[in-house]
Amino acid sequence: MSGIYIHIPFCKKKCHYCDFYITLNKNNVGKLIEAIKFELILRKNFLNKNSIETIYFGGGTPSMISPNYIGNIIKEIKNNFSVNSNIEITIEANPDDISLDNLLKWKKYGINRISLGVQTLNDNLLNFINRSHDKKTAIASIKKISEHYDNFSIDLIYGIPGNRYDKLKNDIKEIIKFNPPHISAYNLTIEKKTVFYNWLKNNIIKKENEREIIKQFNLLKNILEKEEYIQYETSSFCKKGYESKHNSGYWKRKKYLGIGPSAHSFDGKYRSWNISDNNRYISALNKRIIPNTEEKLSKKMKINEIIMIGIRTKWGIDNKQLITQLKYDILKNQKNTIDKLINDKLIYINRTKIKATKKGSILLDYIAEKLLV
Ligand SMILES: C[S@@+](CC[C@H](N)C(=O)[O-])C[C@H]1O[C@@H](n2cnc3c(N)ncnc32)[C@H](O)[C@@H]1O
Ligand code: SF4
User: Fold this and answer.
1) Which atom of ligand 1 is the closest one to the Cα of 94?
2) What is the largest CA-CA distance in the chain?
3) Ligand 2 centroid distance, CA of 161 (Å)
4) 277, 269 Cβ separation under 8 angstroms
5) Which domains does the chain have, with CATH numbers?
6) In this structure, is the dihedral angle defined by the CA atoms of residues 20, 25, 26 and 32, taken in order, positive or negative?
7) Does the Cβ of 93 fall within 6 Å of ligand 2?
8) Quick one: 162 exposed, middle or buried, by C-beta within 10 A (0-12, 13-18, 19+)?
9) Is residue 155 lining ligand 1, measured as CB closer than 6 Å?
10) What pLDDT does residue 165 have?
């Protein structure tokens, strides 16, 4: 079982925190979609004829291009790959693109899950982070989606400078009234080459302090747990049976094919990434060349990936997987470190798995750093 990720690199505005590859120039959307279709055909054997369990349209803002383009890409995938009958097909959407027409067209083409980028319901903050929508549009779009889709997710960001515990509490309470089956809550990261990074360097903004961030994270966790959401990964909460199959595939290290500028792929041995430049991507594909760079994973890299990803999930770091796939027994090789982390009440062992405790769940980077080889 495998997944396909399609990167649609267009947005209306660039959010001040965002470092994904996107452009505001929509002139070559048609040419880019053609190039994406060429790439799908050229790489149809990448997943070794495994059946496709998930398709994920991410970005960028895939909701802002015509739904017909999305339909064409799904058709091309079905023509070239073997597709599972209960496939999950997700589209990332921005609130200002949620019209009834779009919702119905996406559904007609096979989309059965929507991931909506709300981030916050505070109009001042939405403005501050340079979002293209306001609170009213966000609420109206959540309502509309909930009337037409059973499976959808809301993205939130906590730790935004200027946001406060009480405001975040109101946001989350307002959102859960619509009973979203999935919520992703991300801690704001300030990456190089973003407006926020520049503002931070020039003292225009200050990073939120660690204690406030932990308070906000615990608040989200507590409210969502009371509402019967399961935290299956650090940032991901869902009602029973509504895990994102696509993202779970990444965390379980299943193979996936990433199509489009800047998209990443993984075939079990190699990780590769496409060029982050629309024009160069299109001209390479017009010559039937795949413009990517690849890196073979060493045994050490694979062990470290399993540790870093595993500790973030409810499934934990699986020693059985490490032993069978990589002949590495973490429980034996790192006995002293593990005993110390258990003593500090940061991790516990459940059969063959190492999992973070509640206390450890806010110190995941620290735990991973101790366990890396
Ligand atoms: C790939 S983005 C694109 C989704 C869509 N274009 C949008 O912005 O609504 C997916 C999600 O990642 C999160 N995200 C992106 N950059 C982030 C950052 N620097 N810190 C925390 N979360 C971030 C946001 O919640 C966003 O909705
Ligand atoms: S809309 Fe999404 S992808 Fe586009 S700039 Fe904002 S966060 Fe990034």
Assistant:
1) 9
2) 59
3) 18
4) no
5) 2-251 (3.20.20.70), 299-371 (1.10.10)
6) negative
7) no
8) middle
9) yes
10) 87
For 130-178, give the DSSP string.
Answer: T-S--HHHHHHHHHHHHHH-SSEEEEEEE--TT--HHHHHHHHHHHHTT
Q: Is the CB of 59 under 6 A from ligand 1?
A: yes
Residues ≥6 apart with Cβ < 8 Å to 226: none
**Closest Cα to atom 6 of ligand 2:** 15
DSSP 207: P
What is the residue type of 169?
A: K
Burial class (CB in 10 A: 0-12, 13-18, 19+), 123: middle
Instruction: Evaluate whether 149 touches 103 at the Cβ level (below 8 Å).
Output: yes
Q: Is 14's C-beta closer than 6 angstroms to any atom of ligand 2? A: yes
- Please give the distance, rounded to the nearest whole angstrom, from the Cα atom of residue 225 to the centre of ligand 1: 23
Token pair of 80, please?
Answer: 């070239």
The torsion angles phi and psi of 353, rounded to 5 degrees, stand at: -115, 140
Residue 114 DSSP code: E
Name the pTM for this structure: 0.96
Q: What is the mean pLDDT for each group of 10 consecutive residues in the chain (373 residues)?
A: 95 96 94 98 92 96 98 98 96 98 98 98 96 97 98 97 90 97 97 96 92 93 96 97 97 95 96 97 97 97 96 96 95 96 96 94 94 96
- Count of CB atoms within 10 A of residue 61's CB? 24
Q: Which amino acid is at 142?
A: I
